[in-house]
Each structure stands twice: as C-alpha cells, then as structure tokens.
Amino acid sequence: MRAFSTFVLLVAAASQMGATGGGCDHPIIRDPGFDLWCGDSLCTWKVVAGEIKKAPTWHSKDAGVEFLGAEAIIEQTSPVDSGDGHCIKFDLVANVEDTAEVKLEVDVYADGSIDYDSPIPTSAWKPLTYLLRLDGDYRGVRFQLSKHGNGTATLAQIAAYIVPAQDCEGFDAVTVAPAPIGSRCDGDDDCESGLCRVVPDPSSLFGASSACVGCDPTAAACGAGEVCGIFEPSSFVRTMVPACVPDAGDATGERCRLDTECASGICSGGVCSTCDANRPCTDGTCRLAYVNGPTMCSGGARGEPCAIDTDCTSARCEGDPRKQCEDGRSCGSPETCPVVDDETLEPGACTLVGVLGGTCF
User: Fold this and answer.
1) What is the pLDDT of residues 194-246, one digit of tens each?
2) Is 167 helix (H, G, I), strand (E, B) or coil?
3) What region does 150 belong to: left with phi over 0, alpha with psi -120 to 50, or beta?
C-alpha cells in the first residue's frame, strides 16, 4: 500500500511540472508572426472556418494573415498548463477595419467551449497587449482568432507568453471549470465526471498519470448496450482514458480496453484486432499490422478483414484511411498530435498507417 501511495504522489507531482519547457516569458504558441506557410495555408494554425491568405503588413519584410469573407476562424492548441503559470500575456499587431468584428478566444482544456473572449479593436497596425489570469489547475489551452463581417482584418502577429503572476493582479480571473474526460486531475472534485483515476499515459514521466475518466474500470458503471472502454479525445492535451462506449462498436484498428468494445470481439495490445496469442488464425499467420496497430491474420481472401494491403492475398485492403500519432491515437495532421519538444512546441508526426475496419478486395 505504501508503494502505491508513493507512486500516486509522484504522479501528482509530475502533473504540476510545466508542459512548455520554460519559465516566465517563454512562448506558449508556435509561429507567432505567421511566418510558416505550407502552400496557401499556415503550417501551425488550423483553419476552422472560412478562408485566409498571406498578406503584406506595415513592414515590407513581414507577412501577416488576412481573414477573408464574412467569417474566418483559425486556431492553435498549446500544451501550456498550470505548472507553467496562471498569467498569460498576449502581444498583437493588427489592422482591423470598423466593419470587421475580430476576437481573441480562449478554450481551456481544448474541449470546444470558449471560456474567455476579448474583442480586437479597430486599429491600423497598432500594437495591443492583453493579460489573462486563469485560476485553478488546467492542462492545455486552445487559442482561437475569429473574424466576422466584411471589413478587412489582417494580423501581423499574436505572441503568447507566461508572465509573473503579479502582472495579472487586479484583473478579473477566468475560473477553470471541472475538467473534461481525459484531462489531468488530482482528485474527483477536479473532474466533470467526478472520477479521477490513475491511468496509463505515454506522455507522462512515469508512464501514468491521474486523469478524469468517464467510468470506473473496476465497477460496472455503464448503461445497457455500453461497456467501460477507451475514449480517444480529439485534442492532444487530453489522454486516452476509460469511458462508456457502445458495446461492439469499435472497428478493427481502433483503440480499445476490452474485447467487448470491438466488433471483432478481440482487443489485443489495446487495439481491436482479429487474432492474438490465445486466439490464433484458422489460416495464415497472426502478426502486427503496424506499430501501435492491430494484430491481423495474413492471407485474407476477398471480404475478410484487413488493416494493410499485405493482409490480403489480393494485396488490396479497402477502408477509411487510418492516420496515427506516435502514441497510437488517431489524427488528421501533426498539429493534433502530442508535443514532442517542450522548447519548440513541435508536435509529433501524424502518419498514414493503414485503414480502419478494412476489407480485402
């Protein structure tokens, strides 16, 4: 019992360490000057709605981002957490016409709900500074810049830093609400679900962390037609944790905790599979399809399940593309994967590994 208590104490201590690799005045977002473009899109900022384009600014050597049309929104999620600090400073340089409504919006936990917003006033390349105080423990913040209206709106930069707590004294605080499923926690009261449990966490120093879960793996906590399986969050600042999911609702290649989660009835190595050491293939060899992927029977005939082309005798596996981060969670781009360098905030790779719920053709 003492060893377990010590372990929980160490996990809790690790959760209080900053996630962005620096102290005060360390940047907590990437590409604050909108300098990194991948073709016609920003490399590190995601377009949520509308369109943007690279545009000139007040300085001939600096480019900015122009928000086009009546609505345009971009976002970026930072791994910053309460271990880094509670006072965030924003420095902006903007050109905003009076017919455009532009806002800086903040989503703590990156769960899709806006916890704070502030208008960016009409200006002509005027430097602006904002201070935001966050009260309570948090992990991860999604920063969103939105524009509504047909007026011109161009930003030359938005830099965000953690600064000393005293800089935010006197400012109204954003009180951090109980955390959503997949967020770090110290106790049940920290979680929307009321359940804080120690769970595996590849991003943690000790390989585990205390996180808010949707169901208690040791109890029958789910309703009819559900099992206490694995929840795969949409944001990298939250970890994969137990939650109530549909019985037999996960396709081959999806993350799992129990056999009953999977349509195949087999959860092997945390992934819905078609075979394992105790349930071998009738024909062919049981093998790992790809790193952090399912174990599959080789030599599949037409109509049989597959994850990659070489699972099939026809060398043709059809299904929805499966892209994964290095920790095995699904992803759409590197910006949705956990950060691998705390100094540069560089995310890990998002790699096309196979197909989800594939069928041999």
Assistant:
1) 999 998 777 667 778 889 999 988 876 798 999 999 988 888 899 889 999 99
2) helix
3) alpha
Q: Which domains does the chain show, CATH number per domain?
A: 26-175 (2.60.120.260), 248-360 (no CATH)
From residue 101, give the alpha-carbon distance in Å to each of 114, 147, 203, 331: 17, 6, 38, 32
What's phi and psi for 351, nearest 5 deg? -115, 135
Q: Cα–Cα distance between 10 and 314 in angstroms, integer?
A: 51
Whole-angstrom distance, CA of residue 59 vs CA of residue 236:
35
Helices and strands of the chain, counted as H and E runs: 1, 24
- Average pLDDT estimate for 287-304: 94
State the CB neighbour count (10 A cutoff) for residue 93.
Answer: 21
Element housing 347 (H / E): strand 346-347
CA 350, 352, 354, 356 torsion: positive or negative?
positive
Residue 6 is inside which H or E element, if any? helix 2-15
Q: Which amino acid is at 160?
A: A
What is d(CA 153, CA 124) in angstroms, rounded to the nearest whole number?
10
Q: How far apart are CA 254 and CA 293, in angstroms?
A: 8
Residue with tokens 């137990």: 242
**Predicted model pTM:** 0.82
Specify the residue for token string 């585990």: 208
